[in-house]
Amino acid sequence: MDSAYSGREKTPFSAGDAEERTLLSSHSLSVVVPAYNDDQISTSTVTTILATLAGRIRDFEVIVVNDGSRDRTREIVESIAQADARVRVVSHAVNQGYGATLVDGFAAATKDLTFFMDSDGQFDIRDLFQFFNFIDEYDAVIGYRIDRQDAWMRKLNAWGWKVLVRLVLGISVRDIDCAFKLLRTEFLHTHPLETRGATINAELLYKLIHSGATYREVGVTHLPRRSGRATGAHPRVIARALRDLFLYARKWQRMEYVHEQPIKVLQQSP
User: Fold this and answer.
1) 265 domain-assigned
2) CA-closest candidate to residue 209, choices 243, 170, 258
3) In this structure, are residues 52 and 27 in contact, taking their beta carbons and an 8 Å threshold?
4) C-alpha distances in angstroms, 189 versus 77, 109, 122, 140, 197?
5) For the chain, N or C: smaller number of CB within 10 Å?
6) 203 and 248 in contact (C-beta within 8 Å)?
7) pLDDT (tens digit, 0 to 9) for every residue of the chain, 270 residues total?
8) What does the alpha-carbon distance between residue 102 and residue 112 come to, in Å, rounded to a whole number?
9) Alpha helices in the chain (DSSP H)
10) Which of 98, 122, 121 minimizes the C-alpha distance to 202?
C-alpha cells in the first residue's frame, strides 16, 4: 500500500481570482453531502459548493442525502434542487444513520469521481482543489484534519476509536473519520458497503486497502462548528459502532481467509 502525507498552508481565495476559475480536472464529479437537522447552514453549504466548483469542474452534481431530518433541511435542499438541475436530493423518511446516508449517496453518484463532505460547515470545499493533484496517480485521496476544531472529549473518543480500528482491522491512517474523501465512483459501485452507522469510514478504508487500491493522505482545514449538534459521541451511536466493528470484522476476515486458501483440484483416476 502506497500511502503518503501532504499538508500546506492555506492561501485565502477570492471570488475573482483567475486561478480559482481555471479548470481543475477533466474528470466529472459527484459531491455527496449527508445532512441531518442542518437547516441553518444547508443552504450556505450547498450554494458554496455550487459557486466554488462552477468554472473549476466542467461536469459535476451535488447529491444531498437528507437523513430523516426533523427540521426544515429537506424543504430547503429541495428548493435549491428545483432551482438548479445540478443538485439532487435523496431523502430518508426516518433517520437511518450516517453510514446509510453515504451508502445511498454513493449509489446515486453518476460521475467519474465521488467526493463527500459533511454539511455542518466544518470543512472548506476549496481544499478539494489540491486533491486533484493526486487523483490521477492514486485510486483515492483522503483528508485528515490538520487542527481539529472539536471539544476535547470528541478528540479523545476519536483517538480511542482510531486505536481500536487499527487493532481490529489493521487500518493505519491519520484520521479515519475525516468526512473529506475523493474516490473513484467505479470502486464504490463495485465494492458495496455493508455497515450503516459510524463504522462506515472504517469499512470504506478497509475495503479500499484490501482491494489493492492506493491512496494519498492530504491535510485539510477544520473549522469550528457553526450550528447543530454532533451525534457521534451519543452512547447509542458508540454502541452501534462497536457492535458493527467486531461483527463485520469477523465476517470480512473469514471471507478473506476462505479466498486465500489454495484451490484443490480433484483428478479422476484413469
Assistant:
1) no
2) 170
3) no
4) 25, 9, 27, 14, 19
5) C
6) yes
7) 444 433 333 333 344 444 445 777 889 999 999 999 988 788 899 999 999 999 899 999 999 999 999 999 999 999 999 999 999 999 999 999 999 999 999 999 999 999 999 988 899 999 999 999 999 999 999 999 998 988 888 899 899 999 999 999 999 999 999 999 999 999 999 999 999 999 999 999 999 999 999 999 999 999 987 665 555 567 888 899 999 999 999 999 887 755 554 444 434 334
8) 17
9) 39-53, 73-83, 98-108, 128-131, 152-169, 185-190, 200-210, 235-260
10) 98
Q: Is residue 266 part of a domain?
A: no
HSE of 53, CA atoms in CB hemisphere, 13 A: 26
What is the count of structural domains for the chain?
1
CB 147 within 8 A of CB 104: no
Within a 10 A sphere around the Cβ of 131, how many other Cβ atoms? 24
3-state secondary structure of 116: strand
pTM: 0.85
Dihedral over alpha carbons 121, 126, 131, 136 (to 10 degrees):
120
Is 268 a domain residue?
A: no
The CATH code of the domain that includes 81 is: 3.90.550.10
Which grid coordinates are listed for 30? 459527484
